[in-house]
Amino acid sequence: MKIRFWGVRGSIPSPGPQTQRYGGNTTCIEVRGDDGTLIILDAGTGIFPLAQQLLGQLPIQTNVFLTHTHWDHIQGLPFFTPLYIPGNSVRIHGGYDIVSGRGIDQVMEVQLQYSYFPVREAEMNARIEYRTVAAGEPVNVGDVVVTPLLLNHPVVNFGYRVDCSGKSAFFTGDHEPWPNIYDPKDEEHPGYQQMIDQLQGQLDQALAGLDLMIADSSYTSSEYPTKVGWGHGTLEGSIHWARRLGVKTLVCTHHEPTRSDDALDKAFAQACATTGHRPDEPGVPRVLLAREGLELVL
Amino acid sequence: MPAFPRSVQRILELTRSINCLPKDIVAVIEKDPVMTMKIFKLINSAHYNLPNKITSIGQSVVYLGINTIKNLALGFAAAGILPRMNVDGFDVQRYLLHSLVVAGVARQLGGQFAKDEVDPGDCYVAGLLHDFGKVVSAQFLAAEFHRALEYSSEHSVPLHEAERLVIGVDHGVIGALLAKRWAFSELMVDLIRDHHDSSAPTSAALDCLRVADQVVRYNQIGDSGNPWRDSEPAAAPERFGEDIESLVVQMGSLDRIVAEARMFAQLANEG
Predict the structure, then answer these.
(1) Which of A228, B77, B99, B225 is the 20 to 30 A CA-CA neighbour of A21?
(2) What would the mean pLDDT of B115-131 be, rounded to a whole number?
């Protein structure tokens, strides 16, 4: 299984000289199964350069798994050029939105409203299908199995565990480790914490034996207190989590859009120091910052 | 179905601020039977395929996140409010007061007398939802429900018996049908269905619920459309004894439960 990063930025594209090394496109990850099966995790603006590359491999069959429908994870979808070309087949998977009461089939219908985009979905010539996923129910695609797991974000967000030939990767999408909504002095605090611990335990169990974890690490732990409830994780939290799970490699992603490359390097070094992470220590995960063009082979 | 006036008002007030505290939103939703029912219905639906049935609003927040719950509550608020007085004389606010106090008393009974057998949180939710079938009848079978209320009062029979005669089923069955259809936990479906069925197998949670209902009606708090009758036998004599008065003494003051419920059930401008 091969994994390639096409977009690693959170919230909004951030092009410019300050973000040239890690990249300014929003989330998009290409996964290739051993038999060449193409899976795309999220359709942020990073899907556009991926589309350019795919134009040399037509016709394509692909399965796009959307973690959630916030703009930075779907913004590139109408610019995914293979959608316009007959002979291609694109299946879009994602969760049910409890607030709107609609499945993932609404994603482009909402995006492509006349005032906001010139082309209607009916004018796209590829074969387009939608599949609304359910938590824990695996989806088979070629030699790859994708399992959605419900995580924590202001909108319903599924992380995807991807298994292929005995290797496994997990992408959180946007995820904030469940915070306790009660003060420690509230009588409800311990009961709520117990529910959180149970849920975290179930998630950790579902992630057993992971080779690669790609985790939302938007903030540093010192920034986090003012961002509680925004739905994102921290560099330090992801490192702790990866160590606890015993994953082989952790890739931190969803970089804060205002963070320059230099600031990101600094925040990362600080997080490694705070968590006591030393790359040369035996048995600890390899920890990397996601950057556009980074390719990992499992 | 619209929610209760006070909770709609509170949700709209709270959500005006982007920094409203999640626990304040939870505190509103978990006091409104309609909002609670709707959230359980959505979260237990097949869409999320959760490993366990969700039986508390706290759990719903852990699974779906407070922002989703907040937006759901705003959606419920947009559906309007239940009219204060149903066209056929069913006072929904006094009903809400009854449900809230039964919830609080059932939770206390569970914690005080059956701690090892039940989750007091389940007792609370069962208390809040046990009479939900009445709201449904008052809203959608208004004429029949009105006749049942009249029959109960004229013939001095409990409301659930009058409902069985006039509507064909009692509010427990109606509430449980919905709870089952909406994939609530089996325990909750059983509690709602059986709370007036003397032949149903008993359990600690059912005992707490039935006795809480009696304690609240005995003290004439709120109005469930089914006033206390001195001829009523004790609901769970094996666990709580025959004498409801001495149980009330053992429980201590219910003032805090009643005051909180009263504050919530009534519209701010009605004091």
Answers:
(1) A228
(2) 93
Contact, A69 vs A155, CB < 8 A? yes
> Which residues of chain B are within 8 Å of residue A192 when distances are taken between CB atoms?
58, 62
User: Which residue is listed with tokens 């609404």?
Assistant: A106
B63 contacts in chain A (CB < 8 Å):
150, 199
Asked if B132 contacts B178 with a C-beta cutoff of 8 angstroms, the reply is yes
Terminal Cα distance for chain B, rounded? 26
Number of domains composing chain B:
2
The DSSP H or E segment spanning B10 is helix B5-14
pLDDT band at residue A51 using 50, 70 and 90 as cut-offs: very high
Q: Spell out the domains of chain A, with CATH numbers in brackets.
A: 2-271+284-297 (3.60.15.10)
- Cβ separation A191–B42 shorter than 8 A: no
Question: A295-297 and A249-253: which strand pairing?
Answer: unpaired
Q: Inform me whether the pLDDT recorded for B96 exceeds 80.
A: yes
Residue B271 is assigned to a structural domain of this protein: no
Distance from CA of B170 to the nearest CA of A (A): 31
* Distance separating alpha carbons of residues B10 and A283, to the nearest angstrom: 52
Integer Rg of chain A from CA = 19
Same domain membership, residue B212 and residue B102: yes
Of B190, B189, B191, B240, residue with least CA distance to B215: B240
Identify whether residues B27 and B73 lie together within a single domain: yes
Domain CATH number, residue B214: 1.10.3210.10
DSSP-derived secondary structure letter, A18: G
> What three-state secondary structure class fits B28?
helix
d(CA A213, CA A215): 6
Locate the chain B residue with the closest alpha carbon to A152: B65
Amino acid at A193: Q
Number of H helices, E strands in chain B: 16, 0
**pLDDT, tens digit (0-9, with 9 covering 90-100), for B54-95:** 889 999 999 988 889 988 888 888 777 877 766 567 788 888
Do residues B71 and B163 both lie within one domain?
no
The residues, ordered by sequence, that sit 6+ positions from A172 with a Cβ below 8 Å of its Cβ are A67, A151, A159, A213, A214, A215, A216, A233
Domain boundary among the residues B82, B109, B137 is at B82
B9 is in which domain, residue-wise? 5-82
